[in-house]
Amino acid sequence: MPLSAGYVARETASNLWRNRLMALAAVLTVGVSLSLVGTALLLRQSVNHQLVVLGDNVDLQIFMKANAPLGDTNAVRTTLKETPQVKTCSYLDHQQSYDQAIRLFASEPQIVQALSPATTPPVFQCTLVHPRDAAAVAELFGAQAGVYHVAFPGQSIRSLTALSNVLQIVLFTLAIVLLLSAVVLILMAIRMAIFARRREVAVMRLVGATAWFIRLPFMVEGLVQGFVGAIVAAGIVLVGDLGIRALLHRFAEFRGAVVPSHDVVVTEILVVVVGVVVGVLGSAMAVRRFLTV
After folding, report:
1. Third-level CATH fold of 59-152
2. What's the predicted TM-score (pTM) here?
């Protein structure tokens, strides 16, 4: 028997409509699971971009004691100029440091009231040549006379990385469980379609239909379920990315976490490919196990 695209499309549509509730459950499960996969991938890319921004703009801050003698401040300034790991530095005196603190803690009036120019420590704000040297430079200046504290974002980077890793593990674990559920649902939907058409399949075998003539509509049914579920997931991921992108643009310090558009497109394509693979896998298992040709 000749195998035409029209025949495959009609048979696939008929099978999907006959088991529409099971097919809908499979599509939604694929959609939810792949949206978690896409979210986890975008989260990893977002964190990686933010880490690059943090690494390229490492501000090592050397806080002097509020009552540090001028000689100690000049000694630190001289040492900074002689330290090869330090790229540039700017110095904020008591008043400038106080003004900056007022801006930073504008939403916390209790802290603002406790500050004054005289008690706010002056600070050297430095950018390093290589971010990996932050800890060594901090140790060097932490022991100098007149220095109160040396701060750098190393702990922030470690905390951000750790949090990202935990979230990715959780999301990928949930996604794997749901993807396995989707494969089972697709398998069951096709099994029901095969059972409902068992007499037709027997007649087609008797009149000489080839194995592919009988199997292909069922396999396309699984592919369609996986593909539609993947499109749903891609839409959810895209809407989520647009919302997060709009939110991050409102905070200058987090704009580096915005995932570039080409990375989003690659993620969406990967989501669709995985959806198709899940659909084909479920249908192939069903055809092999429940359809003897």
Report:
1. Alpha-Beta Plaits (3.30.70)
2. 0.62
